[in-house]
Structure of Nucleoid-associated protein:
Amino acid sequence: MHNIHLGKIEQLVIHYIGNKNCSDGVRLCDELSDYTNVEDTFNKLITSNFKFDELYQFHFFPDLELNPVYTIINAMFENTDIDSFINQSKNMGRYLYEKSNHPQIKAGELGVFYLADCTVDDELVDCIGIFKSENKQKILKVEDKQTGYDLADIEGLSIQKLDKGCLIFNLHREQGYLIAIVDNTNRRAEAKYWTEDFLSIKPINNEFHQTTYIMETAKQFIAQTMDADDEASKSEKIDLLNRSVDYFKNNEQFDLQEFEQQVFAKDDLIKKYQDFSQNYAQETQLEPVKNFDISPKAVKKQERYFKSVVKLDKNFHIYIHGGKDMIEKGRDGDGRKFYKIYYQEEN
């Protein structure tokens, strides 16, 4: 994991980017934006929103050099002159507008800024940041009058949360730089225009990504394959999910063969998982690694998605954390379904 500290902002320019599908157009500015009165607030917004656990890099088929944003960033790092910075930010705005063609994409402000003297693992590097604000926040302003006070609402950018953003560090240029991202509005397919259509980035294959990828593969396999198996009950599915999480929580290193044996155990289930993993890798265009150091942060993040609850109608929730052999499922003489649970002691 990289140790990253952000430097001081030196340049900022803001443009307005509309929705091309609605023919909103753009407003591209010819001069730098003045941020002197809000510099501390802006720096806090940037430092509090970006996490550096999972990092990314530019990519493009068939050649990285054909990635438009990558090319613009190259030009910005090569020439830090103010006029060049503004002109390249305009090119970025025009390209973002071309990619903003889904009817659900919101218009908003595109900010491009330059951070000097950042440190990545004790190496001093510069960084170019990009953000887009799509959701405005309202606040109440107290207006001082001679006879008292009035209230008025003001709409502006949030000072707590970025909608979309990325930081591009001037490292590993040939591999597509070192990139951190934030995307707090990426909840639907059309929102992926930011990371896929506009930036064209992919995760760097480090321990955080590898841990996340294998845990997600196991979760998808259990959910999709076991759902199609009529003999697999919910309690059996939850048992597999729990065993998957336990493996990652109780080991420092991942070994694929060991993982398959401890979690899935049966040869026929292991074979199904292997076939699913191969197809999943082809769909995601990401090749899993058989051995790697497990990332505790990735495990903690993914663990919340491994639900261990059996929901029975609207009346009961059963939380299962193991001990599948202590649970019995059946149907009585009247056709009613039941779970029978055995236990040693009551807390």
Notes: Residues 4-204 form one domain. The chain has two domains: 4-204, 208-341. The longest helix spans residues 207-227.
